[in-house]
Specification:
Its cofactor is Mg(2+). By secondary structure, this protein is an alpha/beta fold. The chain is built from 20 helices and 30 strands. The structure holds adenosine-5'-monophosphate-propyl ester.
Length: 662
């Protein structure tokens, strides 16, 4: 990679580390065997068509891939289906209505078991209620809910009437919610009075009220689930209690059969500019790949497994591997509302023991946090039911991988390190647990039907362990269909770096065995605790504060969270700034105020770990901020080549500032 390109931020693991093949018993009973690779390689489109036919179609498709408008690819375009019918009704019709779909565990100790038959009723009632509130096919619905069963019901009810949902993570602020509601032109918001987090009721509806008070939205109604029983402000005519309209609605509902390409949902994610991207996904292709990958990667045996993915529905992992994938496959799954350390640090392991969880899917940051808490915490629980462990969101360092396998998996469970993105919709690169000899730290091989390459700067494939750019060189069914309202940005962001090829934004290398090692983002996107954050978005939040003249944000490596947000700010001088603290602790006060300002603009997850007040920022002669140098400072490294700086003295001043705690 050329020196002035952003460099990969992490480089974990080695190629010659030990491998962990599946046990012969595991391999013999696996849901998917080694032959699947050959079948998919021999006839890739035929393979995906075969997977698509595991779904129920109201109108069968005859076209598999339509590339006439590439890169806006279409899959199974002449077929019609419905997502909620496939996720729920189909299992009831097949005689599995009594199977438990959701084992919900509230943080406050409450729990609910919901069978597929009950879920079918709830979804149909909610779909009727949405229709009675004026939501039609194609209208967008914003969902801002905690991890409660109604979140799943709400998403499926939207899907049932063909209204794309836009789930906004409950940790995002009113500002962030407002911009997402505006961008999608949502007409309904589904929220709750609040949810339980860290042992206390935490309100949600006030953020919806604040977001809507900012104006400009097309929202006609707010549908409110009562979860905590806390006081809520009420806007008559606009606000409607869920319990006043959903349980009363009919449980009869004919799903709206939509074309395979009908948008199922929009999900906002961070890009390299300040404006989040509304990634939208189709129905047929997305469902095909989420159900296949969920079955194959987790070796799902729906009659006997108890699956648990710890992701929040506000992220793509929650969409694909809490809602759609598991339900399409008729799985029984745990959903947990709260935090891993409430009321004690063994809460997750207590849940595994209580429900006999067999498959656990979580993020490296959570694993590293548990490592910090010590092995005796999980050691106090019976985890012998576990048989497959998954990891997602960021590279997993081999140390965390081996700890996960030993302390949680009893040295017996395969681990699947799954690489994918909001944009890919479904897992793309991962071992198959009954087939692959796992290599700690490597996501390893593209799944059957997926074609990935590591490319050099000129777009030529690399196979000799050199670092390059990860690219997906053939279309895949669950691929994003675009950026909502911005086709040009879609083309520019993903399809222009290497023409005709999807550029993922990740650095990678491919070792001599053909295994892929992910090296982190090569753009200005950060990955904090597996959450994607944009440097530009946080910078624009900082400069929107009246005290800030300029800001630069970098992701610095962090032992627990993978990366952490570190900001450098230049404060504004001049007469208009009258309220800025002065005195001995002025800097600390400024930093505290700016951190909470970022929290309010985006959400607590975006608050910088540290903010350094500086006099200058390192810039090239053309005025571009050299984030690479700031990252060196933030990671306490010697600063690299500074010859392209306009003022080479700047770095010395910044480093002196970094020496004192911010
Ligand atoms: O950098 C990669 C990292 O997460 C990014 C995608 O983030 P997001 O769209 O929020 O989706 C996260 C959940 C799928 C990727 O560009 N990433 C995700 N999984 C892995 C990973 N990096 C390395 N190894 C992984 N298994």
């Amino acid at each position: 990679m050329p020196a002035d390109e952003p460099q990969p931020t992490t480089d974990h693991g080695t190629t010659d580390s030990p491998t962990y093949p599946p046990s012969p018993e595991f391999a013999a009973a696996a849901a998917v065997g080694a032959d699947v690779y050959d079948r998919a390689a021999a006839d890739r489109l035929g393979f995906w068509a075969e997977q698509a036919r595991t779904l129920e179609w109201e109108t069968p498709f005859s076209t598999v891939l339509d590339d006439s408008e590439a890169p806006r690819y279409g899959w199974f375009t002449d077929g019609r289906l419905n997502a909620s019918h496939n996720a729920v009704d189909r299992h009831v019709a097949a005689g599995h209505g009594d199977r438990v779909a959701l084992l919900w565990e509230g943080e406050d100790g409450g729990s609910r078991r919901i069978t597929y038959a009950e879920l079918a009723d709830d979804v149909a009632r909610a779909a009727n209620a949405l229709t009675s509130l004026g939501v039609g096919t194609g209208d967008r619905v914003a969902i801002y809910l905690p991890m409660i069963p109604e979140a799943v019901v709400a998403m499926l009810a939207c899907a049932r009437i063909g209204a794309p949902h836009s789930v906004v993570f409950g940790g995002f602020s009113a500002d962030a919610l407002h911009s997402r509601i505006l961008d999608a032109e949502a007409t309904l918001v589904i929220t709750a009075d609040g949810g339980y987090r860290r042992g206390a009721a935490s309100p949600l509806k006030p953020a919806v009220d604040d977001a809507l008070a900012k104006g400009g939205t097309a929202v006609a109604h707010v549908l409110v689930v009562r979860r905590t029983g806390g006081e809520v402000a009420w806007t008559p005519e606009r606000d409607v209690w869920w319990h006043d309209v959903v349980p009363q609605a009919s449980a009869e509902h004919e799903p709206v059969w939509v074309e395979a390409e009908h948008p199922l949902f929009i999900l906002y994610t961070s890009g390299t500019t300040g404006k989040p991207k509304g990634i939208f996904h189709s129905t047929g292709g997305y469902l095909t790949q989420t159900s296949f990958t969920h079955r194959a990667v987790f070796d799902l045996h729906p009659e006997t497994d108890v699956y648990w993915c710890t992701a929040d529905i506000g992220w793509i992992t929650g969409h694909s591997y809490v809602v759609y994938g598991p339900l399409l496959n008729g799985a029984t799954q745990v959903i947990y509302e709260g935090t891993p350390d409430t009321p004690h640090r063994g809460r997750w392991w207590e849940i595994v023991q209580k429900y006999g969880v067999t498959i656990l899917y979580t993020a490296p940051t959570a694993i590293r946090t548990c490592m910090k808490w010590g092995e005796d915490v999980p050691g106090g629980f019976d985890l012998s039911s576990l048989r497959v462990l998954g990891s997602v969101g960021e590279p997993i360092n081999p140390e965390a991988w081996t700890w996960y396998r030993r302390a949680i998996g009893g040295d017996r469970t395969p681990i699947v390190d799954t690489w994918w993105q909001t944009e890919t919709g479904a897992i793309m690169i991962s071992p198959l647990p009954g087939v692959t000899a796992a290599k700690p730290g490597s996501a390893q091989v593209p799944l059957p039907g997926v074609v990935a390459e590591v490319l050099d700067d000129a777009g030529a494939p690399i196979h000799d362990d050199r670092a390059g750019y990860l690219a997906l060189t053939e279309p895949w069914p669950a691929m994003l269909r675009g950026i909502w309202g911005d086709p040009q940005r879609f083309a520019d962001t993903y399809w222009s770096r290497f023409p005709g090829v999807y550029f993922a934004g990740d650095g990678a290398r491919r070792d001599a065995d053909g295994d892929i090692w992910l090296l982190g983002r090569v753009d200005d996107v950060m990955n904090v605790s597996g959450h994607r954050l944009s440097t530009a978005e946080i910078e624009s939040a900082l400069v929107s504060h009246p005290w800030v003249a300029e800001a630069a944000v970098v992701g610095a490596s962090d032992e627990t969270t993978g990366q952490a947000v570190v900001a450098f700010v230049i404060l504004r001088d001049g007469e208009e700034v009258t309220d800025r603290p002065s005195g001995d602790d002025a800097d600390e006060q400024v930093v505290a105020a700016l951190r909470s300002h970022v929290g309010a603009a985006i959400g607590p997850i975006a608050k910088p770990r540290s903010i350094l007040v500086v006099a200058e920022l390192p810039k090239t002669r053309s005025g571009k901020i050299m984030r690479r140098l700031l990252r060196d400072v933030a990671e306490h490294r010697d600063v690299g080549d500074v010859t392209t700086l306009a003022d080479s003295g700047v770095m010395g001043l910044i480093q002196q500032g970094m020496a004192k705690p911010a």
